[in-house]
Amino acid sequence: MKREIKKAEGKLGILLPGMGAVATTLIAGVLASRKGLSKPIGSLTQMGTIRLGKRTDKRNPLIKDFVSLANLDDVVFGGWDLFTDNAYETANKAGVLEKSDIEPLKDELIKIKPMTAVYDHKYLVNLTPNNIKEGPTKMDLAQQLMADIENFKKENNCSRIVVLWCASTEVYSAQTDVHATVESLEEGLRNNDPNISPSMIYAYAAVKLGYPYINGAPNLSCDVPAMVELSHRTNTPIMGKDFKSGQTLMKTILAPGLRARLIGLDGWFSTNILGNRDGEVLDDPGSFKSKEVSKSGVLHDILEPELFPELYGNTYHKIRIEYYPPRGDFKESWDCLDIFGWMNYKMQIKINFSCRDSILAAPLALDLALFIDLAKRADMRGVQEWLSFYCKSPQTAQGLPAQNDVFKQLEKLENTLRYLKGEDLITHLGLDYYENELFA
Amino acid sequence: MKREIKKAEGKLGILLPGMGAVATTLIAGVLASRKGLSKPIGSLTQMGTIRLGKRTDKRNPLIKDFVSLANLDDVVFGGWDLFTDNAYETANKAGVLEKSDIEPLKDELIKIKPMTAVYDHKYLVNLTPNNIKEGPTKMDLAQQLMADIENFKKENNCSRIVVLWCASTEVYSAQTDVHATVESLEEGLRNNDPNISPSMIYAYAAVKLGYPYINGAPNLSCDVPAMVELSHRTNTPIMGKDFKSGQTLMKTILAPGLRARLIGLDGWFSTNILGNRDGEVLDDPGSFKSKEVSKSGVLHDILEPELFPELYGNTYHKIRIEYYPPRGDFKESWDCLDIFGWMNYKMQIKINFSCRDSILAAPLALDLALFIDLAKRADMRGVQEWLSFYCKSPQTAQGLPAQNDVFKQLEKLENTLRYLKGEDLITHLGLDYYENELFA
Amino acid sequence: MKREIKKAEGKLGILLPGMGAVATTLIAGVLASRKGLSKPIGSLTQMGTIRLGKRTDKRNPLIKDFVSLANLDDVVFGGWDLFTDNAYETANKAGVLEKSDIEPLKDELIKIKPMTAVYDHKYLVNLTPNNIKEGPTKMDLAQQLMADIENFKKENNCSRIVVLWCASTEVYSAQTDVHATVESLEEGLRNNDPNISPSMIYAYAAVKLGYPYINGAPNLSCDVPAMVELSHRTNTPIMGKDFKSGQTLMKTILAPGLRARLIGLDGWFSTNILGNRDGEVLDDPGSFKSKEVSKSGVLHDILEPELFPELYGNTYHKIRIEYYPPRGDFKESWDCLDIFGWMNYKMQIKINFSCRDSILAAPLALDLALFIDLAKRADMRGVQEWLSFYCKSPQTAQGLPAQNDVFKQLEKLENTLRYLKGEDLITHLGLDYYENELFA
Amino acid sequence: MKREIKKAEGKLGILLPGMGAVATTLIAGVLASRKGLSKPIGSLTQMGTIRLGKRTDKRNPLIKDFVSLANLDDVVFGGWDLFTDNAYETANKAGVLEKSDIEPLKDELIKIKPMTAVYDHKYLVNLTPNNIKEGPTKMDLAQQLMADIENFKKENNCSRIVVLWCASTEVYSAQTDVHATVESLEEGLRNNDPNISPSMIYAYAAVKLGYPYINGAPNLSCDVPAMVELSHRTNTPIMGKDFKSGQTLMKTILAPGLRARLIGLDGWFSTNILGNRDGEVLDDPGSFKSKEVSKSGVLHDILEPELFPELYGNTYHKIRIEYYPPRGDFKESWDCLDIFGWMNYKMQIKINFSCRDSILAAPLALDLALFIDLAKRADMRGVQEWLSFYCKSPQTAQGLPAQNDVFKQLEKLENTLRYLKGEDLITHLGLDYYENELFA
């Protein structure tokens, strides 16, 4: 049942639309890891192990020894941004990393300069860019991007490319007819259809060329039928959307716990304060709506109110994101859960998470890039649901409800790796430990 | 592979050593459910469903329709206590349930009177009991308990019995030679060995008669080789220990989340304030030690510091329980986690859980009683690790590390039920949803 | 220097525009206190003492023994509401008091029926009233109110009347020309000027008749030059505005603490979740603006950024109120303060206040009513700044900055009482305790 | 009434027994302020203003312009420590200040080397010192200290000296006969009475020489009759004890707020986690007891349970300090208050204060030193109760209850300064703003 996977040979180019706080934190961390200055903490591909066989077998290889992944030394970063700052300048402005962590990487960071980016004011209202592409049609912009990608690949001598959206959340938009088929989408690109956002142009450019594409924001991007169809035609893996980093990560850790114990939930109030560019962008109601939709969905498939109307049928779920400049990237969330148990008695849980947006997101971006490159080499195409683990709002096969429980997502990821390598899947049954003694 | 399980016919007697807050909350809730006054929220056996087959099959029967479990109408409660109060009096004194929830059950509660209990001041120092057994040896006390059990079974016309320890935490004691074999234990009972605590005498009485025994507190009780051996000889299922209800439940929900994401952990400080009898008992350092040992262990097997020394090798874990009378049963915990991520950047999580001890514990007690009765009818004997889901410090086969991750515990429980009924085990692989389209 | 104060003889009618949660909680508590069923906790007029003389004199009479206040037995409640429910019905619907606390008062509560109220959709958008006055002009409505008041006074045989606004927050409106003089206001009433809100009509009716008026909400109401002028003409004390109960109370307790220690403040984020009618009304942006303005102002005069630009010149202050139905009246606030100290090092304070809106407001309403009645009997007129202690946004003499520090407000209140009774004012100097020994 | 105060001319030597985290943070901050690298935030003597006259007068001079205080440029630091590290080494080890804040001060810090210290294992159990004085009697040690002080004064050309205890908390000890009179104390020093702790030897040395002494820890030190008597004989001001910095500061901010509003208090639970040397010392039960006694007392005089038995008669107050190494100096406190209001309804306040011990304490140490030097120049002697503002457990005249309310303490301090300079005391009465209009 084991599958043929091509070796990860040569260089892997990771191209990032959006070279802001997350992207530069990702790049800095990879550079620092290469130099032995820090550990790539939070990254399954770098530090994670995978249990094989029985609990008592004690077989726990590193994931990167179990499956063939691009080595960090073989990764090359590039990308596009609305501002001309190089990665060194951006890392300093972002306020994520200490100066003392950036300086040792200065020479390398300074060389990473963003290519001109695709911009549309309709999809991003609170910023004033200075580094954008011009072109008569969206198709023309897509072709410029394709040229950028191929140039980068050649110049950097890459054998493989992955494109990973790390830019701001776009203003909310719903799926329309233009997103239905490859043909309608290409027609729309040629006609400047207003429903095609910048992130979709990047996705188109990548997938058209057969390069894996990942969407780290809640935009539609590759999550429309036309893009899925294109990914099948070009044998390209795609995945999204929205890095599951702070509050939503916590929610998909905690909600499965409530569900496991059938503890009822009257309400879940979530607020966030943050002061980085992400916060500034989300201060716009349209952008917030994209994020809100992405964040709101996670409770439903975890709690299954259809199965448990008495417990979860009336759950009031409210999410707020507040721009609060004193915090910069040091985001803080406060969650308040009104729960009830045995005989309807009420209880409360409050969670206060002081996190750092980009620090949590960076390893997810790295893992997604390396795993989707694996998928490409394993000849996997279309939606990679097994990477749901990293996404706030995982893309799935049409009509298939997403799995948001972070633990089921991890098991899905791990069992997928075991499956690809022909190992037994883990079920946690474990009756065999007692086999000679359990049954009378 | 499906197993033969005897039907749950006739009445099931649930006998409780310790008829305090947890026990009376359990009883009141079952009575109220029978009368349709409330739902048995938090109980998998009553409200839980189990997914069978694929996600899209939408087969989610109630667990109690999937396997044969004792019906709540067929359950009869009895027990022992150090105080003479009947269940109605105790429920009123315990301060858990509102008067308006107790009154409709008065007639039934008032009839449930505790039998005289086994007491040893060495193992319980902060209380002054008024309803205790006398006898020259511990074996003599065990025989009195066996007589109590058989009388109760006859008088109440029960076909099956389960014994479930709901009493206070005993003072800490470690395993000694007397606990090594059935023979040494019985010798110790006859010789009044000081290392045999009251809860162990209850466990012996139950298992000797072939009745399943569950330990809801952190005492040694049935967690010694002698008791495991006896349970095999008498074909009896046993399990423990310590109901996993409040803070530890939260810990085994959250720690797997950190581990899943490989987020490092510098320290975890946990404090609890509570003002009920449990708090009073735990104000004694010896009793607190039992609890501390039980609560401390959970992080190790979840975080696996051997595999991740950089992440979890120096985790400082400190637990405090503070007697704080203003709170009564309305316990509150505060947890403070010092975590670190990408490039060693530090973050914090704080959790404030305002819970109600007995409200959380009651459904666990019910499920454990009904599931261990199922095990007995399925001819399962010895340690029932598949019920770890309910325990702070799960008993396992000798030498086998416990599984404390609540999600793996639930999967173990569910897959065990699927296994017993011959259904496919769930692995969350899910590649088949994409089978015709996934691979190029 | 002692002033002549008329005795509090006869009955005092307290008339409440708005007989909702706060009003019925106030009434129920007064009735319960009369019957000895509970204590009027939180009320200075009922339980407060006042220190007289030196610390070592141990003279601490009850305030109500020190100055002549209406006795609770002499208080009669009445009022107006947009809904026809009597006080018993409203108390049950409000979800503030337990049924067991309301039942013993049923006979009295049921008799308190609201008179028809003045309503203007422009000022209150989220409710649909069923008990409103009709009239061609606002002056006509004012005259109906005056008739209501005089009828109530006669029927209940009252010697004195106080009118106290306990209704919802009105949509925000700023001061305009119509509010400039008594003449322009009366012209506006006759002409249905849209800038005259319902609460202003109540205020006009009361003050015109010479009855003290208090504004418990953040509306303009009596806080315009015309109303102040009228209060001087009719020798009437007035005061407002907005009961200082939950989060803002906490803010005016804590901010003086930061200011005392010159601890810098980068930001203060305040969010509230509540699910009562107040929450529903404040879900409307216009009503929220009234509240936001009222809540925002308190930091400025406490922190004095003009004096301390390095500490408070850039304080980012953000306030949110979120309608969250699971909570009902059991409001919860979360405050997050980003502070800095010595050498600019940053620290944080977080406060989580689980309070009950109406429980906190009721004693303030009682005190304000009894103290303003005292003011009337002491021949005091116009703005009663000494009652700032109770107000989120205290009314002051034109051009005089408000004092929001709750401790200075209390000292102002207490020293005013001492002044009225000719006692020494307290300065906390206290060098005299050491006089023979302090100086060399 | 204005007093004669000598000008602050020449250099002021501030001598610190205990040159650890607090002391080096104090010194570093003063050096940085002199160089214009940072502001002395949190210091009333440096940044504080004082209101003079009426609110509308807008007279708010800086305190240091209002009374004559030593200029920071004229301050010289020295001291004693149990370890030989110089101030630069200690600042780096203490983990309070960032390296980048210490480096610019290196040259000056490195020169500040501790003199050998007085040590007694009985009073400090968790440390192993390497820099201690030897001597046959405690009197001999006192004389060595006096020689140290006079040498320092001469070498540094100081006109005045202040001694300020910044060392660890000593093991708890109660007052005994040896502390009764100057004579018994001196006899005890000669006889090595075990009830004389190191901090008392420092206090004796300073006061005997007529130099002001301040006690920043909860030890007895100068808080015994013998020391008060000596301070009168030598015309020396003294004050203590225990810097009021983190959780207790918060408590004396919040408790006056509850008391102001007569909100009842069922319980107040306070826990602290900290990982610095202070935490290590307080892990010893004897040292913790000193701290516990100091921290526990503050609620009593603020809440006055004698006056309000229904509100504060049964308040359960529990304080815990937990050594938690992951935190270092970045202490965190969690407070949980169970309060009740109108009709006995219960509410809760929780406070989470992430503070930095030494950052909060340093400005208090500076202010105390400069103000007590002022007292000396104003010919004030004995206990300086007007400096209570800075103390967890303020020393007072015998039999006089302490004032712990931080706002009354501040008013006492400010009115004392106004009194010394012949300005009107502030009472917050403020009726005069309305004088022509208030009374009918």
At the fourth CATH level, what is the homologous superfamily of the largest domain in chain A?
A: NAD(P)-binding Rossmann-like Domain
**Biggest protein-protein contact in the assembly:** A-B, 96 and 96 residues
CATH architecture of the largest domain in chain A: 3-Layer(aba) Sandwich
In which order are the strands of the major sheet of chain A placed? Answer: 3-2-1-4-5-6-11
Chain oligomer state: homotetramer
Largest sheet data of chain A: 7 strands, parallel
EC number (chains A, B, C, D): 5.5.1.4
Protein name (chains A, B, C, D): Inositol-3-phosphate synthase
Family (chains A, B, C, D): Belongs to the myo-inositol 1-phosphate synthase family.
Pfam families (chains A, B, C, D): Inos-1-P_synth, NAD_binding_5
Write the layout of secondary structure elements.
The structure is a homotetramer of 440-residue chains.
Chain A: E1 11-17, H1 21-34, H2 44-47, H3 63-66, E2 75-81, H4 87-94, H5 99-102, H6 106-111, E3 115-116, H7 138-155, E4 158-165, H8 182-190, H9 198-208, E5 213-215, H10 225-233, E6 237-240, H11 247-261, E7 264-274, H12 277-282, H13 285-296, H14 298-303, H15 309-312, E8 316-323, E9 332-340, E10 346-354, H16 357-377, E11 382-383, H17 406-420
Parallel strand pairs in A: 1-2, 1-4, 2-3, 4-5, 5-6, 6-11, 7-8
Antiparallel strand pairs in A: 7-9, 9-10
Helix pairs in contact in A: 1-4, 1-16, 7-8, 7-9, 8-10
